[in-house]
């Protein structure tokens, strides 16, 4: 028998011969008889060895069929050595097994199927690690499908609630199929034949290093007549991402870089006159203080989040940069400028004006 086994214990002497079906793997082509038992055939011919038991007739599957299967069909499959994970804002999809399989599970009168003529079955076993605290809009945009020779077969309903799944696809002999994971309008793909990522989208997430330490402090003062101002901020690190919760996916060929800072303080002096009156409003640091040069040329932009402050202490924040996903070095310039104005009941000199602080430059090496 093949996959479906019928056991009929027979008494032999004072004992009973039996075989535990749970010890037989679905992938086996036959089983050896229990120890001490010799098989015989009524026609007197030698019994066929277990590993040579011929596969019984089976119907052919439809061309390009896609189906889910038990993990056991890939028990002897390979494990990718690299590039076997795709990252999305809602989940990570990792290939843990891949390879060819001889047949596809069926049911009823057709317990399994063989590939159609000139086709073969390829399979992937994937683990899906969901992210906690997912965005409702992102969750509703998730989709899964298999692409075979340009044809898309949706398996979204099968995988949305799954943490692990084995998918079988029938492809033309020697060809490939791709598992597609789509989130918020961007698709990423995994090869059935190699188990590796084949897409080039979301490149920022697949760099060798995505987090970097920085310790660059800025501290400068300016004095114009009676007006004095001191501005401080420290840049402490950077992180690469392909997706931002507010901005969405980085444009094709681009990536986001978060430039993290702490302790932004702008002190305006002198705050009081001899009469106890505050002379100046808090100075305002203007936007546009951060500038970037990528790999020696002007490429990319500052999106938002500059460490500008109107006099209050800001504990931490980050600057969002958009740069090419192949970038190796970013030269960052911090050149804060600001404005000041006297309060309506005071008359210091000058009553208002603008100022520029010194520039600070540092490199962020991404390779």
In a nutshell, what does this entry contain?
It is built from 2 helices and 26 strands. With 367 residues, the chain is mostly beta strands.
Keywords, separated by commas or semicolons:
single chain, 367 residues, mainly beta, five-stranded antiparallel sheet, 2 helices, 26 strands, 3% helix
Describe the structure.
With 367 residues, this protein is mainly beta. Helices cover 3% and strands 46% of the residues. It is built from two helices and 26 strands. It has a five-stranded antiparallel β-sheet, with no helix packed on it. It is rod-shaped, with a radius of gyration of 33 Å. It starts with 10 loop residues before the first strand and ends with a strand. The mean pLDDT is 86.
What is the overall number of helices?
2
* Principal-axis shape: rod-shaped
Average residue-wise pLDDT? 86
Estimated helix fraction: under 10%
* Order of strands in the sheet with most strands: 3-11-8-5-4
N to C succession of SSEs: EEEEEEEEHEEHEEEEEEEEEEEEEEEE
Sequence stretches where pLDDT stays below 50 over 5 or more residues: none
Largest sheet: 5 strands, antiparallel
Strand content: over 45%
Kindly report how far apart the N and C termini lie. 58 Å
The radius of gyration is 33 Å
